[in-house]
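Input (structure):
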């Protein structure tokens, strides 16, 4: 917390707790994060809440069975994201 209050420099970028909203909105990296959260957030929440209820009501799985399979799509999403990042780095 001390570094946040006093401000610090990380990789040539100056970070300060006294930064204004105008500075934040002028930063293209901040816009990239905000747009990503805006578009991906609702989709992820849909799957977080829909997947267990679908498996319970349509596939008649117990909560234990849901726990064994509901994580798989999220793992595959992580694998895909890592693979894409590795391919972009090449």
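Output (sequence):
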């Amino acid at each position: 917390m001390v570094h946040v209050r006093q401000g610090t420099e990380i990789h040539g970028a100056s970070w300060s707790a006294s930064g204004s909203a105008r500075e934040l909105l002028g930063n293209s990296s901040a816009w990239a994060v905000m747009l990503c959260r805006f578009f991906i957030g609702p989709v992820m929440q849909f799957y977080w809440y829909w997947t267990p209820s679908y498996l319970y009501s349509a596939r008649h799985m117990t909560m234990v069975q849901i726990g064994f399979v509901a994580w798989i799509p999220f793992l595959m999403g992580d694998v895909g994201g890592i693979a894409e990042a590795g391919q972009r780095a090449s």
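Notes: The helical segments are 2-6, 21-25, 28-57, 63-69, 72-89. The longest strand covers residues 8-10.
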